[in-house]
Queue: 2 jobs
Job 1
Amino acid sequence: MSITADLIRGHTDTIILSLLMHQDSYGYQINKTIAEKTHNQYELKEATLYTAFRRLEQAGWIRSYWGDEQTGARRRYYTITPEGRAAYVRLKQEWEQTKRMIDGLLVEEV
Amino acid sequence: MSITADLIRGHTDTIILSLLMHQDSYGYQINKTIAEKTHNQYELKEATLYTAFRRLEQAGWIRSYWGDEQTGARRRYYTITPEGRAAYVRLKQEWEQTKRMIDGLLVEEV
DNA sequence: TTATATACTTCGTGTGTCAAGGTATCTCTT
DNA sequence: AAGAGATACCTTGACACACGAAGTATATAA
């Protein structure tokens, strides 16, 4: 989409988990939601997105199931697990801490 | 040091440039300053640090010269170039933008 | 019928981080 | 005089995440 890319690295999982906190969703929709919420400033690359799903499922933080669409392409839905919710809380705290840390390191006066 | 690690990825260069905005410095000291400023929450691994220096010098954002220490280990000092200062301004803006973006994506209610 | 949107997947590559190892000098303690 | 610890730098190889590119398949709008 624009600038950002490497700066997000490491936050992908947190972002995905965050969206799943509300409700189950599937890859394509999750990405559209991200685009929407960031006013089209950001969108995950498909490969990144699906890699993250596999990683999160591997970690036991999400579970997946096929939707029962009668029409259109099949959708693989994801649910966040209790462990995933706990992980999200941790990751969010880490984000807050990291944010403060970086802010403390970057000088104001330019 | 603690938690953080992957979350910083991509901000290393910005942090180093930020410290060089004040004054010239050398690897070891830069790392100590980071540790100090973050209350020992964070410190770059040496390999990461020196890799970053090479990358930044390659990009023309910093220049290096040997200090004239009469005693103790030799020190390679780094100076930020005008291009480096311009880059820093950009990187800091990108950080602010990324920060807002991620904040907008992470739900409050847990 | 062609293009576009929806939807998922896999493979190979690149970049940044880091563990581990190395070199060398100085100071403080024993 | 020997040894430990701090200071200071450097290189190599491995790993993880992100991503470009390509492929599959269905539905709809032009």
Job 2
Amino acid sequence: MRNDINIEINDVCEEQCVHNDAVTEVKEKMPNLDTLFTLAELFKMFGDTTRIRIMCALFQRELCVCDLSEILGMGQSAVSHQLRLLRTSSIVKVRREGKSAYYSLDDEHIQKIFELGLEHINEERRA
Amino acid sequence: MRNDINIEINDVCEEQCVHNDAVTEVKEKMPNLDTLFTLAELFKMFGDTTRIRIMCALFQRELCVCDLSEILGMGQSAVSHQLRLLRTSSIVKVRREGKSAYYSLDDEHIQKIFELGLEHINEERRA
DNA sequence: TTAACATATGAACAGATGTTCATGCATTGA
DNA sequence: TCAATGCATGAACATCTGTTCATATGTTAA
């Protein structure tokens, strides 16, 4: 009985349908919240058309801000802001030469993630 | 001279530093905007901690809304709203049984994308 | 049928996000 | 040194997003 009381105290708001074994096991095996938060932050970078287009352009070659601005048909400021986010997330890196800043991809995972995403949406379209 | 005028008309706001060869080539090889938009929509689903946690839980096993609600420590409504988004993006699928709705992953790409993301952030941390 | 329950969903709200505008900083060439 | 150029960045603004609340839908058991 004391045991029951403890369960009630610990599992506040427990719904009646909960499969306790499943819930406990899944909870234990989940990566910690910090990791998942960081992961979400990474994927957030892929979750905007402008940034995806920037990455996609950089798959081909290193480019300066001005080139990217022209390729995307967007203002230099907008591109620059997005590049800052991509830099912060270690997705792109800069190389400065004279007045220009040349951006390129920092890591081959980026393209792999991109390609898996493409596969997924293509299967979806076929289905 | 007429040629110069046309160039000015077509390439409005052209910056002076643009590397025209590079820009033209990259532009040609870029996937179309629709595809990149759809791709961004997909990755948007990975770009939220709640949804990442849901996917992560479903890697282990099929779960009902109520279980997920308990695992995440979040309200049923919030979870249900997110599941709807994941359903719409063909990331999860539902199986209904009695009063419950059991969710599971729709496609193995999802876990692969997740794992590549993990690799990326782990390399980042090591560096 | 009715009550209880699991889930879904619309509305409302707060907070996050992306672009533009204005401006600052560094580099280059005159 | 000064003007022009390429890039970065803060502020402002509109839009998008995620959660909560209230409520609806559909299923089950009594």
